Amino acid sequence: MPYHEFDCSKCLPERQKHAVTKGAGDNLATALPLGYLNTIPGSISERGCAYCGAKHVIGTPMKDVIHMSHGPVGCTYDTWQTKRYISDNNNFQLKYTFATDVREKHIVFGAEGLLKQNIIEAFKACPDIKRMTIYQTCATALIGDDINAVAAEVMEEMPDVDIFTCNSPGFGGPSQSGGHHKINIAWINDKVGTVEPEITSDYVINYVGEYNIQGDQEVMLDYFTRMGIQVLSTFTGNGTYDGLRAMHRAHLNVLECARSAEYICNELRVRYGIPRLDIDGFGFEPLSQSLRKIGMFFGIEDRAEAIIAEETARWKPELDWYKERLKGKKVCLWPGGSKLWHWAHAIEEEMGVKVVSVYTKFGHQGDMEKGIARCGEDALAIDDPNELEGLEALEKLQPDIIFTGKRPGEVAKKVRVPYLNAHAYHNGPYKGFEGWVRFARDIYNGIYSPMHQLSGLDISKDEIPADRGFVTQRMLSDAKLPEEIAKSETLRRYTGKDDIISDLRKKNAPYFTPIVKAEAAE
């Protein structure tokens, strides 16, 4: 096994088995790090907990629900407004967070009375919301608070409300992924099948493992609508509590994020006979194949092909423009979950970049297996890295950009490596044909940002050239355009005076065509 030992982790020899470098001819039998294990004491991991996986990833995107954390207020802070799970009810679930704020006295004497008081107060404060999810945390689980009994008592006293309880304390798994499993199973055990929906189409699906990050779901729903498909429920992006109770009446479960939501799909198949179809909304070819599979299932392939042809004709030229300029750029793919394998091959094939490292903080071993299988030789694969290991990897690999979360992303910026937010996006959505071009645009802007290129200068000793970092000027210079054109382009970048460049475009249209396209995409 080609294990990779970090210098900073030599004091933790067992960490060596959590990182490998994929060599020539290596496969999953010879290049697979240990994964989905408890964090090694002393490594100071940045992992999330099972509570975070249940509430933050799965539960919170439900839009018409009071999400109540039963525990110390710090647990709630960790999951408040840190992802862009937008909804069409004025983002209620992002604007408000609810917690029982358990203190030391409640740990000693019990906090069930406090929970009941908070539930009633929350419903009174939000009279239009009649649904609630209660999330157990480590502290209240350890003292044995019975949140199910409290919820049942409140529902008996307030018959117009409905409450779902999620027993997923932070210690319920080695990472966030443990919480995914717990809330999936709890939801199908307690709520699915308790509401009968209105069926309006011959083709009915549940869209599962979709969380509507910056509107991802809306992009996909547009395709489904154009195919004549009714989306019965979305688990759980922009989803309604009662809509998700009706999942048992779908004809097909269309699964996007397999790691976070395959559990409920598998149970729906066992209990209700609903088949599961895994799809991928990222990348032109993976998305096209996904729409084709759905079309084939319902016998409406022609509708899928019409969408693919229309969208590809519209957006492929713009993607190709970015691919030409991103070719060979090195990327650390550190998203943490299913995007590890959703993106690994697609960005290399369709954007021309080179994935030099993959990692996961809270995924399962299956996530790492797929990620390694889809990346090329010499890629460094790491399970549950800490901050020092991340910095050492950046120094060794010298990537042009990394795709990761906010915490490691901000660290990368300090060592002059630009990052894109792989969890919540910079300027999403990234799904769909247009979204994939938007992703390429963000990568292009990140790598070629004058701000990042200038940030590498030491102003105490380095000369600061006026044109440093302005890639557009360098492209013009490489094309051997007259010096005054390059200067004018730089001037336009500084002053924003479009009239200068407009005249130049008229005189030198062939040189400026790509630039016009880039600006249109931006």
TrEMBL record:
The EC number(s) this enzyme carries: 1.18.6.1
SUPFAM superfamilies: Helical backbone' metal receptor
Pfam families: Oxidored_nitro
GO molecular function: ATP binding; iron-sulfur cluster binding; metal ion binding; nitrogenase activity
Recorded catalytic activity of this chain's protein: N2 + 8 reduced [2Fe-2S]-[ferredoxin] + 16 ATP + 16 H2O = H2 + 8 oxidized [2Fe-2S]-[ferredoxin] + 2 NH4(+) + 16 ADP + 16 phosphate + 6 H(+)
Cofactors demanded by this protein: [8Fe-7S] cluster
UniProt keyword terms in alphabetical order: ATP-binding, Iron, Iron-sulfur, Metal-binding, Nitrogen fixation, Nucleotide-binding, Oxidoreductase
Coiled coil: none
Nitrogenase/oxidoreductase component domain mapped to chain residues: 49-447
Entry keyword annotation includes Cell wall biogenesis/degradation: no
PANTHER family xrefs: NITROGENASE MOLYBDENUM-IRON PROTEIN ALPHA CHAIN
NCBIfam families from the UniProt entry: alt_nitrog_alph, ANFD, N2-ase-Ialpha
Quaternary structure, from the entry: Hexamer of two alpha, two beta, and two delta chains.
The family this protein is said to belong to: Belongs to the NifD/NifK/NifE/NifN family.
Protein's name according to its UniProt entry: Nitrogenase protein alpha chain
Organism: Rhodopseudomonas palustris (strain ATCC BAA-98 / CGA009)
Lineage of origin: Bacteria, Pseudomonadati, Pseudomonadota, Alphaproteobacteria, Hyphomicrobiales
Gene name as annotated: anfD
